[in-house]
Q: What sequence folds into this?
């Protein structure tokens, strides 16, 4: 176990959250992690585990002991009878996906980036888009965590089912996750069809597009009537990945390189944004390709941004998106990032954004360093009017009182937290705001 003492500054990926922990610890085993938790409790220090810092909230910030999981990585076990894989909590999704592919296996669904650790991604409710397949956390069949007294607790539908219901998206409030077991399936092929489409058509046909595709999402370019749609469906093959040059042009040059220039110009000269948006949204061309799931679901994101995302009842999403468009049309705000719309089926996780209801997600982004408050506040007002639930790892201003209204099982989670961490060893300012004391 490596340990550093003294206040080094920790920063998240977007650079909007910093903290100065007294100690940073990188345990090399579950036993070392449990010992670090017990020692922190003896010293009267709070404990937070951090992944790769991809949350835009201060969920992992602490002035106490920061646990870094980079030594807790790798696959513990593949069970081909149960079709599960058990991985250490610090394993990056990128490494998990590549390792599963080598074994001829895959997760059913995933988000659109894979830089996060498995524990960080699941604890905050990271999701992709899916008609029938849900978030990464909904694919968990068991997990192991070190609780506040330093003991190891394993939970699943059979063992400690009340903990399992909550800890799959536990916000770091119930303990430090040390290992996760995911359901997997034999690797399969997905055909992605990306196609520009008018805003009016996408919104009019949204229910049909959702029903006809296993994974449907779209991006709307503010200040235009243009969208880009993406449909991912299982395919019998053969694999036909994008050619190296076209993949580089789409995923690196346009999505990262040119986009970086565009948003930098937009930040410097906001008046240019509507014109740039019209040109760039028309520059997109349709393309179709077929590959293994993680190569279709995920793409590199090198342009740093801030993001707010709300989950709404699916039937409310298009109305809310039209309200966002109307708000931007009449406001002086200039927004260079597309607005992303995805879906998820209802799940049974206590504080999942899709807990107990079919959901659609509306995500808004702004380039890092751009003043975001006016835009995010205006969008948040629309989302909360529809009973929206903010993503736990993305910018929002909601508190425990609001969550108690929009999550029917909120009290179930806080009661479990009272039992597992009565002294709030894993507490911080963010959890105090969203869960209460």
A:
């Amino acid at each position: 176990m490596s340990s550093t003492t003294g206040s080094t500054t920790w920063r998240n990926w977007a650079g909007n959250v910093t903290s100065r922990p007294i100690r940073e610890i990188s345990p090399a085993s579950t036993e070392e992690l449990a010992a670090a938790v017990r020692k922190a409790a003896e010293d009267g220090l709070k404990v937070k585990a951090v992944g790769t810092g991809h949350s835009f909230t201060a969920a992992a910030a602490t002035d106490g002991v920061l646990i870094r999981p980079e030594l807790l990585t790798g696959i513990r076990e593949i069970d081909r009878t149960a079709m599960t894989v058990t991985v250490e909590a610090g394993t990056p999704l990128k490494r998990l996906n590549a390792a599963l592919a080598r074994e001829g296996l895959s997760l059913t669904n995933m988000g659109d980036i894979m830089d996060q650790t498995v524990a960080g991604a699941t604890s905050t409710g990271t999701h992709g888009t899916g008609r029938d397949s849900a978030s990464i956390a909904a694919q968990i069949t068991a997990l192991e965590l070190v609780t506040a007294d330093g003991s190891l607790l394993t939970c699943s539908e059979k063992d400690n089912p009340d903990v399992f219901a909550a800890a799959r998206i536990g916000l770091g409030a119930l303990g430090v996750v040390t290992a996760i077991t995911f359901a997997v399936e034999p690797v399969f092929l997905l055909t992605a069809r990306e196609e520009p489409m008018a805003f009016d058509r996408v919104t009019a046909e949204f229910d049909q597009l959702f029903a006809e595709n296993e994974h449907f999402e779209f991006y709307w370019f503010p200040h235009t009537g243009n969208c880009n749609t993406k449909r991912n469906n299982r395919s019998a093959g053969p694999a036909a990945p994008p050619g190296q040059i076209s993949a580089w042009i789409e995923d690196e040059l346009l999505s990262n390189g040119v986009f970086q220039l565009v948003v930098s110009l937009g930040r410097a000269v906001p008046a240019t944004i509507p014109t740039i948006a019209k040109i760039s949204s028309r520059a997109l061309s349709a393309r179709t390709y077929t590959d293994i799931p993680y190569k279709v679901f995920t793409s590199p994101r090198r342009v740093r941004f801030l993001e707010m995302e709300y989950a709404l009842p699916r039937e409310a999403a298009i109305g809310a998106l039209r309200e966002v468009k109307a708000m931007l049309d009449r406001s002086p705000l200039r927004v260079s990032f597309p607005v992303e719309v995805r879906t998820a089926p209802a799940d049974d996780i206590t504080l999942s954004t899709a807990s107990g209801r079919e959901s659609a997600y509306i995500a808004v982004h702004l380039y890092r360093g751009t003043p975001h408050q006016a835009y995010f506040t205006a969008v948040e007002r629309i989302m909360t009017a529809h009973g929206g639930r903010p993503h736990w790892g993305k910018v929002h201003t909601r508190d425990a009182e609001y969550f108690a209204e929009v999550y029917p099982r909120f009290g179930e989670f806080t009661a479990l937290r009272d039992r597992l961490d009565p002294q709030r060893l894993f507490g911080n300012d963010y959890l105090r705001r969203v869960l209460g004391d």
About this structure: The mean pLDDT is 93. The two ends are 32 Å apart (CA to CA).
